[in-house]
Amino acid sequence: MKTDEKPLELSKDTGDCVEKIDISEIAVSAAKMVEQIETAIVGKTETVRRAVLTLLCNGHLLIEDIPGVGKTTLAKALAKSIGGDFRRIQFTPDLLPSDITGGSIYNQRDAEFEFRPGPVFANVVLADEINRATPKTQSALLEAMEERTVTTDGITRDLPRPFFVIATQNSIEMTGTYRLPEAQLDRFFARLSLGYPDKEYEVSILGQQQIVRPVDAITPAITPQELVAMQRAIREINVNEKIRAYIVDVVDATRRKSSQLLMGSSPRGTLLLMRAAQGHAAMAGRADVWPDDVKAVAASVLAHRVLPREDLRAQGQTTESVIKQILNEVAAPVPVG
């Protein structure tokens, strides 16, 4: 298989005019972002690439793992790699929806109510330990994540562009937590975990962080405006009819895997799997989606959108492993070229 010799030029909306962005620009910028983030998160290149992919595809990211493996550090590193306005919300049981969205406060001088925006009005919002807040407070993010708007007092307000939510949660703590409902899980483009570092990388972490924190030294690899341009350009990556049919076949297989799954992926999962494959192709500098792009991103996009049977874990399997089984079972189209 060969990539196009002539770089693909994609639209870049700069406000006053539309110029062209070379497909290679996306690959180069993504590589710079990964390089910056890896100064703080070492030995997890593939996880970092998936996180950057989520950003480029204009999605939201859920980072789920045990305590102390670097979830918050990865979130901060992602935010720093694009610059822009950053807000962190520490989710707790007493957090209220208005603490996230903001609300109207009476201004005595003007004798009228004025809206004070909450921390959700930022380019990058870190929802730290999201499952510690009540379901009512968690749901305050639903409209923001899906519509990129916030409605309070009957008035709908647009959120900044780009708008990116990074949520973290511990996968083993149950006391004092509230499980994320399927409706909210479905809003997240991808779910990732970091896991333990290899011994050699853990030794290097000790050396890196003995005096300073590498995450504090990260500089933006791109601007928020450049990110928005790349997000729009990725939608123009070509997905031919056979690839679209393959994506539908993969998602449909999750709905027919009744022996292991109670519920398959939603149609939103189908759309986001296509978008993720487009982003994966763009990060490789290619103008067309290949079957391998779909296979590479399927687990991180679909695994949190399916509902496993209770005995799945007892069988030593995860939803990610089920998705990988499906990829082995569903016939992929043969790439041309």
Task: Give an overview of the whole structure.
The protein is α/β, with parallel strands linked by helices and 337 residues long. The protein folds into 2 domains: 29-208, P-loop containing nucleotide triphosphate hydrolases (Rossmann fold); 237-337, Orthogonal Bundle (Helicase, Ruva Protein, domain 3). The chain is 40% helix and 18% strand. It has 13 helices and 13 strands. The strands form 5 sheets. The chain has a 5-stranded parallel β-sheet. Strands 1-2 form a two-stranded antiparallel ribbon. α1 (23-37) packs across α3 (71-82), α11 (267-283) packs across α12 (291-302) and α12 packs antiparallel against α13. The chain is globular, with a radius of gyration of 21 Å. The model is unreliable at 1-18 (pLDDT under 50).
Topology at a glance:
Layout: E1 9-13, E2 18-22, H1 23-37, H2 45-56, E3 61-65, H3 71-82, E4 86-90, H4 97-101, E5 102-107, E6 112-117, E7 124-128, H5 135-138, H6 142-147, E8 149-152, E9 155-158, E10 164-170, H7 182-185, E11 190-192, H8 199-208, H9 224-234, H10 241-255, E12 261-263, H11 267-283, H12 291-302, E13 307-308, H13 319-329
Parallel strand pairs: 3-10, 3-11, 4-7, 7-10
Antiparallel strand pairs: 1-2, 5-6, 8-9, 12-13
Helix pairs in contact: 1-2, 1-3, 10-11, 11-12, 12-13
